[in-house]
C-alpha cells in the first residue's frame, strides 16, 4: 500500500489560508452563543480553530500552520472592527476577549503536536525485547519472517 500523494505546496498554502478565513469567520459569528449560561459557541469555535490548524499542518506542515494562523487572526480582527451595516460582531465582553486571544493560541497548538502524527510513512516501533515489529499491511513476498532463532530476517536475503 502506497502513501497518499501530498498536495502541491501552492495548493496546500492556498488551502490553509482559505481554511483559516472560513474557520475564523464562522467562529466569530458563533462565539457569543450561550446555552444555559455555558459558552457553547466559544468552545465550539475554538475547537474548530484547533482542528483547522491540525488539517493545515497535515497539508503543509509548519508553513501551513503559520499561514492558517495568520489568516484566522486577520479575519477575526477584521470582523471585530468592520461589521455589516456598522453592527458589532465582537463585543467588549469576556467571551469576545477569550475568542480574540484564543484564536492565536488555539492555532499554535497544532504546531506543538508531534511530527509523527503527520508522517506519510508508517512508523515502525521496537518491541520490548528490542525486535522490530512488522506492520500488518507489509505481509507479502518481501515481508520479514522469523528465523530459527526468533530474529526477524528478510525473505529477500
Task: Give a written overview of the molecule.
By secondary structure, the chain is mainly α. The protein has helices at residues 9-30, 40-81, 94-109, and strands spanning 144-146, 152-154. α1 packs across α2 (40-81). The longest helix is centred in the middle third of the chain and has 42 residues, at 40-81. It is elongated. It starts with 8 loop residues before the first helix and ends with a strand. The model has no long low-confidence stretch (mean pLDDT 82).
The helix/strand order is HHHEE
Strand order of the largest sheet: 1-2
Q: Helix amount, in percent?
A: 40-55%
Radius of gyration: 23 Å
Low-confidence stretches: none
Amino- and carboxy-terminal Cα gap:
22 Å
Q: Mean pLDDT, nearest integer?
A: 82
> How much β-strand is present in the residues?
under 5%
Q: How many strand elements? A: 2
Tag the structure with descriptive keywords:
157 residues, mainly alpha, two-stranded antiparallel ribbon, 3 helices, 4% strand
Amino acid at each position: 500500500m502506497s502513501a497518499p500523494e501530498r498536495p502541491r505546496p501552492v495548493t496546500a498554502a492556498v488551502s490553509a489560508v482559505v481554511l483559516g478565513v472560513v474557520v475564523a469567520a464562522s467562529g466569530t459569528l458563533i462565539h457569543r452563543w450561550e446555552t444555559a449560561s455555558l459558552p457553547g459557541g466559544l468552545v465550539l469555535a475554538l475547537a474548530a480553530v484547533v482542528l483547522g490548524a491540525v488539517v493545515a499542518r497535515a497539508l503543509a506542515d509548519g508553513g501551513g500552520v503559520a499561514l492558517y494562523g495568520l489568516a484566522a487572526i486577520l479575519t477575526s480582527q477584521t470582523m471585530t472592527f468592520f461589521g455589516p451595516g456598522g453592527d458589532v460582531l465582537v463585543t467588549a465582553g469576556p467571551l469576545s476577549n477569550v475568542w480574540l486571544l484564543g484564536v492565536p493560541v488555539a492555532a499554535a497548538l497544532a504546531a506543538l503536536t508531534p511530527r509523527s502524527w503527520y508522517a506519510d510513512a508508517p512508523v515502525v516501533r521496537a518491541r520490548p525485547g528490542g525486535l522490530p515489529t512488522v506492520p500488518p499491511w507489509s505481509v507479502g513476498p518481501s515481508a520479514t519472517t522469523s528465523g530459527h532463532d526468533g530474529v526477524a530476517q528478510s525473505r529477500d536475503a
